[in-house]
Amino acid sequence: MKGVDEPLGDFVVFGRVKFPYVRARSVQVTGVVVAALIVADEEVIIAGSGRVGVLASNTCVLVSGKRPIIIERAHCVNIVALGTKAPIVLRWVRAARVYARKAIIGELEAREVVLAELCNVKSLLRVSRVVFADPHVYIEDVSELGEVVYSYKLPEESK
Protein backbone atom coordinates (compact mmCIF):
# COMPACT_ATOMS: atom_id res chain seq x y z
CA MET A 1 0.00 0.00 0.00
CA LYS A 2 1.35 3.42 -0.91
CA GLY A 3 1.92 6.14 1.64
CA VAL A 4 0.31 9.57 1.73
CA ASP A 5 3.37 11.38 0.33
CA GLU A 6 3.99 8.95 -2.51
CA PRO A 7 2.35 9.69 -5.88
CA LEU A 8 -0.31 7.28 -7.05
CA GLY A 9 0.30 5.36 -10.27
CA ASP A 10 -1.82 4.58 -13.28
CA PHE A 11 -4.41 1.78 -13.34
CA VAL A 12 -4.68 0.30 -16.86
CA VAL A 13 -6.69 -2.87 -17.54
CA PHE A 14 -7.65 -4.68 -20.73
CA GLY A 15 -10.30 -7.24 -19.86
CA ARG A 16 -12.36 -7.56 -16.70
CA VAL A 17 -12.08 -5.48 -13.50
CA LYS A 18 -14.00 -6.54 -10.39
CA PHE A 19 -12.80 -4.69 -7.29
CA PRO A 20 -14.68 -3.06 -4.43
CA TYR A 21 -12.75 0.16 -5.03
CA VAL A 22 -10.10 1.56 -7.37
CA ARG A 23 -7.93 4.55 -6.43
CA ALA A 24 -5.23 5.81 -8.80
CA ARG A 25 -3.89 8.88 -10.56
CA SER A 26 -5.40 7.72 -13.86
CA VAL A 27 -7.83 4.83 -14.50
CA GLN A 28 -8.19 3.30 -17.96
CA VAL A 29 -10.35 0.23 -18.51
CA THR A 30 -11.12 -1.45 -21.81
CA GLY A 31 -13.62 -4.23 -21.21
CA VAL A 32 -15.93 -4.89 -18.27
CA VAL A 33 -15.71 -2.97 -15.00
CA VAL A 34 -17.60 -3.75 -11.77
CA ALA A 35 -16.66 -1.52 -8.82
CA ALA A 36 -18.37 0.21 -5.92
CA LEU A 37 -16.00 3.20 -6.02
CA ILE A 38 -13.58 4.56 -8.62
CA VAL A 39 -11.54 7.64 -7.69
CA ALA A 40 -8.87 9.16 -9.92
CA ASP A 41 -6.92 12.40 -9.67
CA GLU A 42 -6.73 13.09 -13.40
CA GLU A 43 -8.94 10.93 -15.61
CA VAL A 44 -11.16 7.88 -15.79
CA ILE A 45 -11.62 6.26 -19.20
CA ILE A 46 -14.00 3.32 -19.48
CA ALA A 47 -14.57 1.73 -22.88
CA GLY A 48 -16.85 -1.28 -22.72
CA SER A 49 -19.53 -2.07 -20.17
CA GLY A 50 -20.15 -2.53 -16.48
CA ARG A 51 -21.46 -0.98 -13.29
CA VAL A 52 -19.87 1.58 -10.97
CA GLY A 53 -21.38 2.82 -7.70
CA VAL A 54 -19.53 6.14 -7.33
CA LEU A 55 -17.26 7.67 -9.97
CA ALA A 56 -15.09 10.68 -9.03
CA SER A 57 -12.41 12.30 -11.15
CA ASN A 58 -11.36 15.43 -13.00
CA THR A 59 -12.21 14.05 -16.45
CA CYS A 60 -14.49 11.07 -17.09
CA VAL A 61 -14.81 9.51 -20.55
CA LEU A 62 -17.37 6.71 -20.89
CA VAL A 63 -17.84 4.80 -24.16
CA SER A 64 -20.24 1.86 -24.14
CA GLY A 65 -20.00 -1.24 -26.29
CA LYS A 66 -22.64 -3.89 -26.87
CA ARG A 67 -23.77 -3.63 -23.22
CA PRO A 68 -24.43 -0.48 -21.18
CA ILE A 69 -22.26 1.28 -18.63
CA ILE A 70 -24.27 2.04 -15.48
CA ILE A 71 -22.99 4.71 -13.08
CA GLU A 72 -24.99 5.33 -9.89
CA ARG A 73 -23.31 8.63 -8.86
CA ALA A 74 -20.79 10.67 -10.86
CA HIS A 75 -18.80 13.57 -9.40
CA CYS A 76 -16.57 14.84 -12.22
CA VAL A 77 -15.41 18.19 -13.57
CA ASN A 78 -15.83 17.09 -17.21
CA ILE A 79 -17.91 14.12 -18.36
CA VAL A 80 -18.09 12.73 -21.88
CA ALA A 81 -20.69 9.96 -22.17
CA LEU A 82 -20.85 8.32 -25.60
CA GLY A 83 -23.33 5.51 -25.99
CA THR A 84 -22.83 3.40 -29.10
CA LYS A 85 -24.99 0.27 -29.43
CA ALA A 86 -25.97 0.37 -25.75
CA PRO A 87 -26.64 3.54 -23.74
CA ILE A 88 -24.71 5.10 -20.90
CA VAL A 89 -26.87 5.18 -17.74
CA LEU A 90 -26.01 7.92 -15.24
CA ARG A 91 -28.42 7.97 -12.28
CA TRP A 92 -27.04 11.13 -10.58
CA VAL A 93 -24.49 13.55 -12.06
CA ARG A 94 -22.75 16.63 -10.68
CA ALA A 95 -20.22 18.18 -13.06
CA ALA A 96 -19.02 21.44 -14.55
CA ARG A 97 -19.31 20.31 -18.19
CA VAL A 98 -21.24 17.38 -19.65
CA TYR A 99 -21.37 16.05 -23.21
CA ALA A 100 -23.85 13.19 -23.63
CA ARG A 101 -24.81 11.12 -26.65
CA LYS A 102 -27.23 8.17 -26.35
CA ALA A 103 -27.38 8.53 -22.59
CA ILE A 104 -30.05 8.03 -19.94
CA ILE A 105 -29.53 10.50 -17.09
CA GLY A 106 -31.52 10.58 -13.84
CA GLU A 107 -30.64 13.84 -12.05
CA LEU A 108 -28.25 16.29 -13.69
CA GLU A 109 -26.58 19.28 -12.08
CA ALA A 110 -23.97 21.06 -14.22
CA ARG A 111 -22.73 24.40 -15.48
CA GLU A 112 -22.68 23.54 -19.21
CA VAL A 113 -24.47 20.61 -20.85
CA VAL A 114 -24.43 19.47 -24.48
CA LEU A 115 -27.14 16.91 -25.23
CA ALA A 116 -26.67 15.13 -28.54
CA GLU A 117 -28.78 12.41 -30.12
CA LEU A 118 -31.10 10.13 -28.14
CA CYS A 119 -30.58 11.58 -24.65
CA ASN A 120 -33.16 11.22 -21.89
CA VAL A 121 -32.92 13.34 -18.74
CA LYS A 122 -35.34 12.75 -15.90
CA SER A 123 -34.55 15.85 -13.83
CA LEU A 124 -32.47 18.88 -14.84
CA LEU A 125 -31.68 20.44 -11.44
CA ARG A 126 -29.36 23.44 -11.90
CA VAL A 127 -27.88 24.08 -15.32
CA SER A 128 -26.46 27.42 -16.50
CA ARG A 129 -26.24 26.60 -20.22
CA VAL A 130 -27.82 23.80 -22.27
CA VAL A 131 -26.94 23.12 -25.90
CA PHE A 132 -29.31 20.86 -27.80
CA ALA A 133 -27.33 19.27 -30.65
CA ASP A 134 -30.22 17.04 -31.76
CA PRO A 135 -34.03 17.35 -31.65
CA HIS A 136 -34.37 13.80 -30.21
CA VAL A 137 -33.76 14.78 -26.58
CA TYR A 138 -36.31 14.20 -23.81
CA ILE A 139 -36.29 16.11 -20.52
CA GLU A 140 -38.98 15.24 -17.97
CA ASP A 141 -38.50 17.87 -15.24
CA VAL A 142 -36.63 21.20 -15.26
CA SER A 143 -35.93 22.97 -11.95
CA GLU A 144 -33.51 25.79 -12.75
CA LEU A 145 -32.37 26.51 -16.30
CA GLY A 146 -30.19 29.30 -17.67
CA GLU A 147 -29.32 29.87 -21.34
CA VAL A 148 -30.70 27.47 -23.97
CA VAL A 149 -29.01 27.04 -27.38
CA TYR A 150 -30.30 24.95 -30.30
CA SER A 151 -27.39 24.00 -32.57
CA TYR A 152 -29.38 21.99 -35.10
CA LYS A 153 -31.36 23.31 -38.05
CA LEU A 154 -34.98 22.40 -38.66
CA PRO A 155 -35.86 21.25 -42.20
CA GLU A 156 -37.55 23.80 -44.41
CA GLU A 157 -41.29 23.37 -44.72
CA SER A 158 -42.55 22.72 -48.23
CA LYS A 159 -45.27 25.11 -49.42
Helices and strands in order:
Elements (H helix, E strand, L loop, with lengths): L9 E73 L5 E14 L1 E13 L3 E14 L4 E14 L9
Parallel strand pairs: 1-2, 2-3, 3-4, 4-5
Question: What's the quick description here?
Answer:
The protein has strands at residues 10-82, 88-101, 103-115, 119-132, 137-150. It has 159 residues and is mostly beta strands.
Mean pLDDT: 90
Low-confidence stretches: 1-6
Largest sheet at a glance? 5 strands, parallel
User: Gap between N and C termini, in Å?
Assistant: 72 Å
Overall structural domain count:
1
The shape is globular
Strand content: over 45%
Could you explain how this protein is built, in words?
There is one protein chain. It contains no helices and 5 strands. With 159 residues, the chain is mainly beta. It has one domain (22-148). A 5-stranded parallel β-sheet has the order 1-2-3-4-5, with no helix packed on it.
